[in-house]
Design goal:
It is built from twelve helices and four strands. It is an alpha+beta fold. The structure holds flavin mononucleotide (FMN).
Length: 276
């Protein structure tokens, strides 16, 4: 692998062919190449995965940093086709959940730590805090991303499923989750369908997300507008309508498109996350 290979990866990541600008990367290795090549995959072959895949991905996940080594996350490997079909329905009918052989459901898990605290201290009030919930969701996300990159390094495809939060209570029932455990998101894993190419989706230019020393919001307007043209060209090439800024505005301008996720606080409380 050469620096020009990696610059090509950065070129795709920042949509250089569509008018974007990429930084020159001064380092080259297989991990960076895999990270730059990430793309969500939504078309899968139904072929099963070797039995070794799940323990390999979970070892990668458990190798992520975890706040205070509390390890406030768990994961459920869902292979059963009927259960995947039911979860696909709960996630707004996303066909890739039913089609791919594996759905990993990443859990924010306060139950294990609460059980330990209850047994040793007779109290669990620290587990009621927003801070504990945040730690659990962050831990779950870090673990999942390690697993996602590991899967991609094995030539597998992945796509996250935030839509599992559309119906948190029903998802919890489907997975027999105890109180104080909630599904943060899913991760579909499978063999990408070679007939359906998934493209690398350009990201915001670095000057938007990277600040030096202090934060500057107004400075972002110009490069955000430039990115809107780049990602607009990408969407058009993919046959997707609309502009990125309108997608952002739709999502933040009203709660209509959230499909129930605007009621997450109540659902979390019901699941035993009081968020004090
Ligand atoms: C937490 C999370 C939840 C997501 N939920 C969904 C989902 O429910 N369905 C889906 O098709 N993609 C989902 N995605 C994938 C994003 O749409 C995707 O990562 C984003 O558009 C960038 O595209 P890329 O991953 O191909 O670079 C999710 C991604 C994340 C990180």
């Amino acid at each position: 692998m050469t620096t020009s290979d990696l610059d090509a990866g950065a070129g795709e990541r920042y949509g250089v062919a569509l008018g974007g600008t990429a930084p020159r990367l001064g380092h080259v290795n297989a991990v960076l190449a895999a990270q730059l090549a990430h793309r969500s995959v939504r078309a899968y072959l139904p072929d099963p995965l070797p039995d070794t895949v799940v323990p390999t991905l979970v070892a990668a996940a458990q190798s992520a940093a975890t706040s205070s080594n509390l390890q406030l996350w768990s994961v459920i490997a869902v292979r059963d086709a009927d259960r995947r079909a039911r979860l696909a329905r709960l996630a707004g009918g996303q066909a890739h959940i039913a089609r791919a052989p594996l759905l990993l459901v990443w859990l924010a898990d306060l139950a294990r730590a609460r059980r330990i605290a209850q047994a040793r201290r007779g109290d669990t009030e620290g587990g009621d805090l927003v801070e504990s919930a945040l730690v659990a969701f962050v831990d779950a996300a870090l673990a999942a991303q390690n697993a996602a990159l590991a899967a991609e390094s094995l030539g597998l495809g992945t796509v996250y499923i935030g839509a599992l939060r559309n119906h948190p209570v029903e998802v919890a029932a489907e997975l027999a989750l105890p109180p104080h455990v909630v599904a943060a998101f899913g991760l579909v894993v499978g063999h990408p369908d070679p007939a359906v190419a998934a493209a690398v989706k350009p990201r915001l230019p670095q000057e938007v997300v990277l600040h030096h020393e202090t934060y500057d919001l107004e400075r972002q307007d110009g490069p955000v507008a430039a990115y809107d043209d780049v990602i607009g060209a990408f969407y058009a090439a993919e046959g997707l309508p609309g502009r990125w800024v309108d997608r952002v505005a739709d999502r933040f301008g009203s709660v209509a498109g959230l499909r129930g996720r605007d009621r997450l606080r109540a659902a979390l409380r019901e699941r035993g996350f009081p968020l004090r």
